[in-house]
Amino acid sequence: MKTRILLTNDDGVNSAGLWAAYEALADIAEITVVAPATQQSAVGRSISIFEPIRASEVAINGVRAWAVGGKPTDSVIIGLFALDLRPALVVSGINIGENLSTESIMTSGTVGAALEASNQGTPAVAFSLQVEDQGDKFDDPRFYRQSFEGAKKVVRDVCERLIRSGFPSEADVININVPSRITGGYEITRLAHKLFRTGVEKRLDPRGRPYFWINGPLVDDAEEGTDVHAVRKGNVSITPVTLDCTSGAANPQLAKMFPDGERLP
């Protein structure tokens, strides 16, 4: 009996990357696609709690799928609880654009969907493909020009290994980033600190009032052992991620500042 996989993303149910992942996994798993009806990049792990969520069954590429009128996190929750899919694994992606560094995974809807799945008790892996032109992230994801062939091989191989060997016990999510041109192999990495050099561009509207665009170029590289550095040199980055954001290393310093039992002033 094939392993059940819930397949989702943040680029939308029509994204070429989502269906590339479907093609990579169709032979080895029983897949149900539950994904946002529209583009939802950079929404992180936001959730729709102030409005109802509609989910419609649609046919795409001859395959039945669920288009969810909400966020990637909503899609996972609908799949797990409304559709009662009970997957062994949630796969999020293939995202058009890399999701590297702490900066990106905190805002990525692709990773956000995987984090939500893990939070609900289902192991999850997120896949992202580096783009050669950052503008590609903002084009229609149905017609992405770059080849997914290398990424599809990675998706299948990684998922086969996870199904065969089991999910790492100390990880909640596995974040996979595939370079646009794979020239190396797999590399186990840690998150870099930054992916972009953040900037803000001020412009004036036709009435002379200011508005702003958040922008900024990619960092050139990061230190050895990071996801950014691995992808820059052509390796497939594999980063284990945990839901626990606690910084235990800060405890001793905080304990000196706030001794146990000390009364409030």
Structure report:
With 265 residues, the chain is an alpha/beta fold. The chain has one domain: Survival protein SurE-like phosphatase/nucleotidase (Stationary-phase Survival Protein Sure Homolog, Chain: A, 3-Layer(aba) Sandwich), CATH 3.40.1210. It has seven helices and eleven strands. The protein has a nine-stranded mixed sheet with strand order 3-4-2-1-5-6-7-11-8, sandwiched between helices. A two-stranded antiparallel sheet has the order 9-10. A hairpin with a 2-residue loop joins strand 3 and strand 4 (63-68). Helix 1 crosses helix 5 (149-165) and helix 2 (72-82) runs parallel beside helix 4. The longest helix is centred in the middle third of the chain and has 17 residues, at 149-165. It is globular.
Pattern of helices and strands: EHEEEHEHHEHEEEEHEH
CATH class: Alpha Beta
Secondary structure: number of strands: 11
Number of domains: 1
Keywords:
11 strands; Stationary-phase Survival Protein Sure Homolog, Chain: A; 265 residues; alpha/beta; single chain; 25% strand
Task: Give a quick precis of the structure.
It contains 7 helices and 11 strands.
